[in-house]
C-alpha cells in the first residue's frame, strides 16, 4: 500500500525532468534539427558560425528548460505544502503510469522507468492534448521515445475504508484507449468527477495510464544485409589502408548531413581515418579492419553519392598491416610508436582538394582514365623512345604532386611541377605547356588520382588540350595492380610513394631519390618540423632528425628545446627524445640542455637559414646558426657603442645578429642615430655577388620591419619568389637604417675584404668609418693573422679595448691532430678517391693554418685571447 504522493518523491521526479529536458539531444525539438541543416555551399566561417548558433540555441533552450523546471518545482512545493482545501491553488492530477511487459523488454527499461507517477496541473495543456500528454510522459520515461506506443486510461480502485488499490498493470477492465485529444479531455473530466465524489478519501484527482506497444506501428528497420553476418571487427588480425574519392555529378546537397550519415554508417566497422566532405564530393584516406573489408566496400557501394561515382572504386593498399604493425606504422609521437590513424574524422570542407581556382570546372570531363597496366606499358614505351633519342615522340608525363612528394619518388621520365602547394599548379601549367601543341599526348598522375581529376579538367577545359590521360587510381592503384597482375615486371615508379596518413610514405622500390634538407644525404624520410610555428614538411635523414630534434633548422631546434614551441602531436621522428609541452623535455646532451636554457632565437633566423638553404644551397652550411648567432648578438649588445665590422657577410645571418645586438647597445646608452661617423653602426663586406644580393634583399627587410613576425613573413615571401626575383646589386655598397635609424648599416660588395680593411687601417681609400668596438672575422680562413693584424696595427679599424671574434678556429676538431703534427707530412691515403683526397687535403691544410693562427695570436702581447669551443670554435680576442 503506497500513498499517491510524497513531497520527496515529487521533488526527485521534477529534478529528473530537468535532466531529461536537456537530454532531448540531436533527436530533440525541431529547432535544433533545423539549425543543424546547412544549405548551399557554406564557407568554413559560415560553418563555424552556424555551429556556434546551434550551440547558443541549445544553451538557451537548456537554460529555459532549467528555468521552467525550477519554477514548476517551486509551484509544486507550494502546492504540496499548502492545504489541499485551498481554493486559490490549482488542483494537481496524480497520474500513475505503467509500461507493459513487451515494451519493457524491447526498450530494456530500468526499474524506475517501468512505472512511476507524474503530477500534472489542472491548467496545463496536458489535460486536453494527446501530444502534450505524450510529451509529458517522455520527459519522465525517456526510453519511450524510441518506440511508438498507445495509451489506455482507467482509475484506481478506492475501497470504502479509503484504501486505494491501483489496478493491475495488465488490467483492461474499466480501461479505455486514449488515442485522441477528446479521449484525454474526457479522462481528466471523469477524474475530476471522481474526485468531487471521493474528496474525503483522495488528496487529488488520480488517473492510471497503461502504456502498450502500438500493434500497428511499423517495425524498426532491419540492419542492412551486409551487417547481419559481419564478423566482429575487433577480432581482425590486420588493418587495410585504403583511399577513395567521388565527384557525384549532382554534387552533395547537404555536406553536413551527409558527413553525419557517413559517421553513422561506418561506425559498426571500427574504421579509422580522415574523410573530407564538400559539395563537390568526398575524399577519404582510411584504414579498415581487414575482416570486415568486404562489408565496408558493400556499404560504400550502397551509398548513392559514392556507389557509382567512386572513380576506380576503392584504392586498396596491396599489403594489409598486421594489428601489431599498424600500431607502429605511423610517425612516432613523442618518441613512442603510433598508428597511421587514431580516430575516424569526417569533416566538412569547402572543397575536398583545395584548388584555389576562381570557379569549379566539370569534374566529370577530365581526360581519359587510363588503367594502371596500360599506363605501365605507356611509361615503358616512353622510356624506350627516350633511350633511342626519339623523345619528341614520347608523351609528356606530368607529376601533379608537390615537391616534397616528387622528390622522394616518381615515374621514370616524369616532369614534376615543383609546386609547394596544389594551388600553384595552374600558373606552373600555363608556363610549362605554353609551347606544347594542343593535341600532344599528355599523361598525368598523382597519389590516388583525385588531384588529376582537377588538373585533367583544367588542362582540357581551360587550356584546350585534347589528348589527356590520367593514371586511374593514382600511384596507389598502380602499385597494387602491378603487384597483383605483373609481379615480375620492374616498377616504372621509382622510390617512395608519399601518402597522407601517419606513415608519410610507402616504399615501392628501394631507390632513394630525396636528399636531406640539412645535410644533403640521400634519404626518403619525410616529416614535419616539430616547431609548431613552422611545421613545414621536409625531407630529412634520420641522423639530422635526431641531431635537430625533429626540427628543420637551428632556430626551430632552439625554440623546441626551450619548450616554447610544443611538438605537434603525431609528427615526431623516432629516436627524438622530446615530450609534449606539459611534460618536461629530456635533453640528450649538454649542448641541447644549454640551448634549452638559453632564450629562444627569434623566428626571423629560421627564415634566414631557410632562405640560404633555398637560394644558395651549396653554401648553406656556412651560416653562423643559432648558438653562435646568439653569442654574436650578446657580444654586440655588450660593446660600448654598438659599432661592429663583419668580414664575410654571406647571406646576412650573422649581420642580422650583429644588428640586433648593436641596437640593444645603442638603446642602453640612449643613442638614437648611428652611422659611419658615430653611434651604433654595422658594416659588413662580401665578395660573392650572389650572396651579396641575397644579403641586401634580406637586410632591407629587417631594416623595414625589424626582427618580428612581419619580417619573418616577408623573408618567407622572398624565398618563395626565388633567386631570379632578387635584384642584382651591381652597386658597391648599400646603406640601410635599422631600428628607425638607431643603427646605421652598410653592406659592401668588395673584391677582397682584407684589402679594404688594410686601406682603412692605413687611412687610405674612400671608406673611412670611425673605429669599431667589435670585428667579426668570418671571410677567407687562410689569412686570419693578416685580418687581426689590420685590427691591431692601428686604432683606425678597432678601438683600444675592442674585441676581434674569429670563427672556425677549431676547424672541425682537426686542429687537435694538426697540433700533434699528424698533418705535417700531408701523407695521403692511397685507397681513397681523388675527390675525397682533395677534400681531406684542403681540410688538413686549413687545420694547420688554424693551428698556426691560434698558436701565434695567443703569444701576441697586444691581445688577450679566449678560445670558446662553440660550434666550430670561436676565438674572442681583446685588444689591450
Ligand atoms: C663563412 S661565410 C660567412 C658567413 C656569415 N658570416 C654568416 O654567419 O652567415 C664566408 C663568406 O666570406 C666570403 N669571403 C671569403 N673570402 C672573402 C674575401 N676575401 N673578401 C670578402 N668576402 C670573402 C665568402 O664569399 C663567404 O660568403
UniProtKB/TrEMBL annotation:
InterPro entries given in the database record: Rhodanese-like_dom, Rhodanese-like_dom_sf, Rhodanese_C, SAM-dependent_MTases_sf, SAM_O-MeTrfase, TRHO_N
PANTHER family: TRNA URIDINE(34) HYDROXYLASE, UPF0176 PROTEIN YCEA
Pfam families: Methyltransf_3 (PF01596), Rhodanese (PF00581), Rhodanese_C (PF12368), UPF0176_N (PF17773)
Family per similarity comment: Belongs to the class I-like SAM-binding methyltransferase superfamily. Cation-dependent O-methyltransferase family.
Entry-linked PROSITE patterns: RHODANESE_3, SAM_OMT_I
One GO molecular-function entry: O-methyltransferase activity
UniProt keywords, alphabetically: Methyltransferase, S-adenosyl-L-methionine, Signal, Transferase
GO annotation, biological process: methylation
Originating organism: Phaeodactylum tricornutum (strain CCAP 1055/1)
UniProt cross-references to SMART domains, sorted A to Z: RHOD
Residue stretches making up the Rhodanese domain: 391-487
Keyword Methyltransferase: yes
Name listed for the protein in its UniProt record: Rhodanese domain-containing protein
Amino acid at each position: 500500500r503506497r500513498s499517491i504522493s510524497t513531497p520527496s518523491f515529487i521533488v526527485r521526479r521534477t529534478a529528473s525532468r530537468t535532466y531529461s529536458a536537456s537530454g532531448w539531444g540531436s533527436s530533440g525539438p525541431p529547432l535544433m534539427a533545423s539549425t543543424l541543416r546547412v544549405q548551399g555551399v557554406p564557407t568554413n566561417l559560415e560553418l563555424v558560425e552556424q555551429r556556434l548558433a546551434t550551440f547558443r540555441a541549445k544553451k538557451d533552450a537548456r537554460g529555459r528548460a532549467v528555468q521552467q523546471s525550477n519554477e514548476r518545482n517551486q509551484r509544486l512545493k507550494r502546492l504540496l505544502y499548502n492545504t489541499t482545501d485551498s481554493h486559490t491553488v490549482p488542483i494537481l492530477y496524480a497520474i500513475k503510469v505503467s509500461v507493459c511487459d513487451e515494451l519493457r523488454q524491447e526498450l530494456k527499461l530500468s526499474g524506475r522507468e517501468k512505472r512511476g507517477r507524474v503530477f500534472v496541473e489542472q491548467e496545463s495543456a496536458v489535460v486536453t492534448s494527446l501530444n502534450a500528454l505524450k510529451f509529458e510522459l517522455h520527459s519522465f520515461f525517456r526510453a519511450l521515445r524510441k518506440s511508438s506506443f498507445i495509451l489506455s486510461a482507467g482509475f484506481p480502485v478506492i475501497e470504502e475504508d479509503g484504501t486505494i488499490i491501483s489496478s493491475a498493470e495488465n488490467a483492461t477492465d474499466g480501461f479505455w484507449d486514449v488515442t485522441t485529444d477528446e479521449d484525454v479531455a474526457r479522462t481528466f473530466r471523469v477524474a475530476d468527477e471522481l474526485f468531487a465524489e471521493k474528496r474525503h478519501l483522495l488528496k487529488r484527482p488520480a488517473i492510471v495510464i497503461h502504456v502498450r506497444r502500438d500493434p500497428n506501428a511499423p517495425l524498426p528497420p532491419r540492419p542492412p544485409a551486409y551487417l547481419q553476418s559481419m564478423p566482429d571487427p575487433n577480432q581482425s588480425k590486420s588493418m587495410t589502408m585504403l583511399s577513395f574519392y567521388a565527384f557525384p555529378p549532382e554534387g552533395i546537397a547537404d555536406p553536413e548531413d551527409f558527413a553525419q550519415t557517413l559517421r553513422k554508417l561506418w561506425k559498426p566497422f571500427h574504421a579509422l581515418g580522415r574523410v573530407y566532405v564538400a559539395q563537390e564530393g568526398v575524399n577519404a584516406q582510411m584504414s579498415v579492419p581487414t575482416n570486415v573489408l568486404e562489408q565496408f566496400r558493400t556499404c560504400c557501394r550502397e551509398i548513392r553519392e559514392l556507389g557509382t561515382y567512386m572513380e576506380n572504386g576503392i584504392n586498396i593498399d596491396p599489403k594489409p598491416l598486421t594489428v601489431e604493425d599498424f600500431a607502429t606504422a605511423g610517425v612516432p609521437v613523442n618518441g613512442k610508436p603510433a598508428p597511421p590513424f587514431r580516430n575516424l574524422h569526417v569533416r566538412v570542407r569547402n572543397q575536398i582538394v583545395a584548388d584555389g581556382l576562381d570557379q569549379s570546372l566539370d569534374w566529370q570531363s577530365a581526360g581519359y582514365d587510363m588503367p594502371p597496366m596500360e599506363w605501365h606499358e605507356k611509361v615503358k614505351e616512353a622510356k624506350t623512345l627516350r633511350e633511342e633519342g626519339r623523345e619528341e615522340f614520347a608523351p609528356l608525363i606530368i607529376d601533379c604532386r608537390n615537391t616534397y612528394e616528387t622528390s622522394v619518388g616518381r615515374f621514370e621520365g616524369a616532369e614534376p611541377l615543383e609546386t609547394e602547394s596544389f594551388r600553384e599548379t595552374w600558373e606552373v601549367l600555363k608556363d610549362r605547356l605554353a609551347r606544347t601543341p594542343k593535341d600532344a599526348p599528355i599523361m598525368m598522375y598523382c597519389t590516388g588520382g583525385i588531384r588529376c581529376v582537377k588538373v585533367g579538367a583544367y588542362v582540357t577545359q581551360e587550356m584546350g588540350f585534347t589528348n589527356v590521360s590520367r593514371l586511374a587510381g593514382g600511384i596507389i592503384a598502380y602499385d597494387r595492380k602491378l603487384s597483383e597482375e605483373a609481379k615480375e615486371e620492374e616498377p616504372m615508379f621509382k622510390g617512395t610513394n608519399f601518402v597522407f596518413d601517419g606513415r608519410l610514405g610507402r616504399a615501392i622500390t628501394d631507390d632513394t631519390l630525396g636528399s636531406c634538407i640539412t645535410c644533403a644525404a640521400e634519404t626518403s624520410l619525410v616529416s614535419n618540423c616539430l616547431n609548431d610555428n613552422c611545421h613545414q614538411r621536409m625531407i630529412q635523414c634520420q641522423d639530422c632528425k635526431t641531431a635537430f630534434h625533429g626540427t628543420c633548422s637551428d632556430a626551430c631546434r632552439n625554440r623546441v628545446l626551450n619548450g616554447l614551441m610544443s611538438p605537434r602531436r603525431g609528427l615526431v621522428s623516432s629516436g627524438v627524445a622530446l615530450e609534449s609541452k606539459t611534460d618536461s623535455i629530456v635533453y640528450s646532451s649538454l649542448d641541447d640542455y644549454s640551448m634549452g636554457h638559453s632564450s629562444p632565437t627569434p623566428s626571423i633566423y629560421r627564415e634566414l637559414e631557410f632562405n640560404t638553404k633555398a637560394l644558395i644551397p651549396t653554401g648553406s652550411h656556412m651560416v653562423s646558426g643559432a648558438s653562435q648567432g646568439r653569442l654574436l648578438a650578446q657580444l654586440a649588445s655588450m660593446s660600448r657603442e654598438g659599432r661592429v665590422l663583419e668580414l664575410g657577410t654571406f647571406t646576412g645571418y650573422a649581420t642580422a645578429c650583429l644588428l640586433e645586438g648593436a641596437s640593444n647597445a645603442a638603446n642602453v646608452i640612449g643613442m638614437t642615430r648611428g652611422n659611419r661617423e658615430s653611434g651604433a653602426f654595422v658594416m659588413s663586406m662580401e665578395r660573392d655577388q650572389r650572396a651579396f644580393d641575397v644579403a641586401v634583399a634580406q637586410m632591407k627587410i629587417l631594416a623595414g620591419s625589424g626582427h618580428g613576425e612581419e619580417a619573418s613573413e616577408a623573408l618567407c615571401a622572398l624565398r618563395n619568389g626565388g633567386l631570379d626575383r632578387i635584384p642584382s646589386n651591381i652597386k658597391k655598397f648599400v646603406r640601410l637604417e635599422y631600428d628607425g635609424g638607431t643603427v646605421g648599416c652598410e653592406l659592401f660588395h668588395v673584391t677582397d675584404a682584407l684589402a679594404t680593411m688594410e686601406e682603412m687601417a692605413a687611412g687610405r681609400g674612400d671608406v673611412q668609418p670611425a673605429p669599431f668596438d667589435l670585428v667579426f672575422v668570418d671571410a677567407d680562413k687562410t689569412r686570419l693573422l693578416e685580418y687581426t693584424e689590420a685590427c691591431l696595427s692601428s686604432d683606425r679599424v678597432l678601438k683600444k679595448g675592442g674585441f676581434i671574434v674569429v670563427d672556425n678556429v677549431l676547424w672541425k676538431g682537426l686542429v687537435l691532430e694538426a697540433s700533434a703534427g699528424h698533418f705535417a707530412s700531408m701523407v695521403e691515403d692511397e685507397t681513397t678517391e681523388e675527390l675525397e683526397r682533395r677534400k681531406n687535403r684542403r681540410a688538413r691544410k686549413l687545420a694547420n693554418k688554424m693551428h698556426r693562427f691560434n698558436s701565434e695570436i695567443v703569444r701576441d702581447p697586444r691581445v688577450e685571447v679566449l678560445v670558446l669551443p662553440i660550434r666550430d670554435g670561436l676565438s674572442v680576442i681583446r685588444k689591450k
